[in-house]
């Protein structure tokens, strides 16, 4: 059967049929792995919300007025960074998620701040922070938007894993009024190239889809096949996040109807059928509160990074569920919530995927 046949078949499956197929796929795992749902205990270091893009659904961008009078971050101050690191240590986090708007140093304000801190450029700044975090046995996972292959090469040696959402390759999103109309960094070829470059460099990688931003069902399924094709070429994609758009006041994109739960469940199940047990399927649990078990039954086996104290900067109104709360939900249905590192175990051993200094840090971590 070729991809086109698979595509047509998948598109026409009922939710009931998808669920049955997912069950058969999970049953192929060793018995002790079938009921395990993982998460990574993390905290976020948000470096700058200056961003070259202006996505219609984004609350993080410096152009959007902030809730509760929070101010925009040109470049995170040293003191705030130290506070976050100390909190991360106190809460026994293993992962530090480093994020920022895309190419923040394309703005003079950020460039000037970097200069004041004796940094030649933003990537050097991120490299230094990543290296510093390793000294505290914190494993960086960096997602800064589009980077060059040289940037990726430099950061690889200081990061346990890295990420970039594919989001959607639909060109409709670039039309007038589309969510990516003013986002040059969201041009699909650039993002595909970035994900492939990470593969060439053997970087354990996270990517994923953003649902409900103006794409069609066909677009979603095509993008899942695209991720599978890239993974087959490079073998580096450890997890695929499937995230749903959440409406918020103040953002430009205000759809008449937001994506419904059935459509979201369909894509989780479809992703599981496409990726089988090779790539983890992740849902951020703060975005689907109340549907955890339904998602697990559709193939989700990872809740991603859960922070005991920092906000979800993209969806700040969505409080992270407490880890104990999620544990109880899982246990009530005989699932086991298990902590993992930002680099999946199979990539620690996989040839060329885990630099020696990251391995050394992992050896120091007790988890
Ligand atoms: S979603 Fe990301 S890339 Fe888009 S405007 Fe917001 S920070 Fe920038």
Structural Rg: 20 Å
| CATH level-two architecture | Alpha-Beta Barrel
Text of the CATH class: Alpha Beta
Order of helices and strands: HHEHEHHEHEHEHEHEHEHEHH
Number of domains: 1
Per CATH, what is the topology? TIM Barrel
Description:
With 367 residues, the protein is of the alpha/beta class. It has a single domain, classed as Aldolase class I (TIM Barrel), CATH 3.20.20. Helices cover 38% and strands 14% of the residues. Strands 1, 2, 3, 4, 5, 6, 7, 8 and 9 form a nine-stranded parallel beta sheet that branches. Helix 2 runs parallel beside helix 9 and helix 8 runs parallel beside helix 9. The longest helix is centred in the middle third of the chain and has 18 residues, at 217-234. The mean pLDDT is 94. Residues 51, 53-55, 58, 60-61, 101-102, 145, 183, 185 line the site of iron/sulfur cluster.
């Amino acid at each position: 059967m070729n991809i086109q046949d698979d595509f047509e078949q998948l598109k026409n499956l009922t939710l009931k049929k998808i669920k049955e197929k997912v069950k058969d796929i999970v049953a192929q795992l060793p018995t002790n792995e079938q009921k395990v749902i993982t998460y990574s205990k993390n905290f976020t270091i948000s470096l700058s919300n200056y961003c070259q893009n202006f996505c219609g659904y984004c609350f993080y961008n410096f152009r959007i007025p902030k809730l509760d009078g929070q101010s925009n971050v040109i470049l995170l101050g040293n003191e705030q960074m130290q506070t976050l690191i100390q909190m991360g240590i106190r809460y026994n986090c293993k992962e530090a998620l480093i994020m920022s708007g895309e190419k923040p140093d394309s703005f003079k304000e950020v460039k000037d701040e970097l200069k004041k801190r004796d940094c030649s450029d933003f990537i050097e700044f991120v490299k230094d922070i990543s290296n510093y975090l390793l000294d505290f046995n914190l494993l960086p996972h960096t997602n800064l938007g589009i980077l060059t292959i040289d940037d990726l090469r430099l950061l690889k040696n200081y990061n346990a894993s890295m990420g970039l959402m594919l989001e959607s390759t639909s060109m409709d999103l670039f039309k007038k009024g589309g969510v990516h109309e003013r986002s040059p960094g969201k041009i699909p070829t650039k993002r595909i190239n970035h994900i492939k470059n990470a593969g060439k460099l053997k970087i354990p990688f996270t990517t994923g889809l953003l649902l409900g931003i103006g794409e069609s069902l066909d677009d979603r399924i095509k993008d899942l096949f695209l991720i599978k094709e890239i993974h087959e070429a490079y073998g580096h994609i450890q997890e695929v996040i499937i995230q749903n758009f959440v409406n918020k006041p103040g953002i430009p994109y205000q759809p008449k109807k937001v994506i419904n739960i059935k459509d979201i469940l369909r894509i989780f199940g479809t992703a599981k059928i496409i990726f089988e047990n090779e790539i983890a399927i992740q849902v951020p649990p703060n975005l689907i509160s109340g549907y955890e078990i339904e998602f697990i039954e559709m193939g989700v086996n990872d809740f991603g990074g859960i922070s005991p104290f920092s906000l979800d900067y993209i969806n700040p109104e969505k409080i992270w569920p407490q880890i104990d709360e999620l544990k109880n939900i899982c246990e009530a249905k005989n699932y086991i919530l298990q902590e993992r590192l930002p680099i999946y175990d199979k990539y620690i051993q996989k040839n060329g995927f885990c630099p020696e200094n990251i391995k050394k840090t992992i050896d120091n971590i007790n988890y």
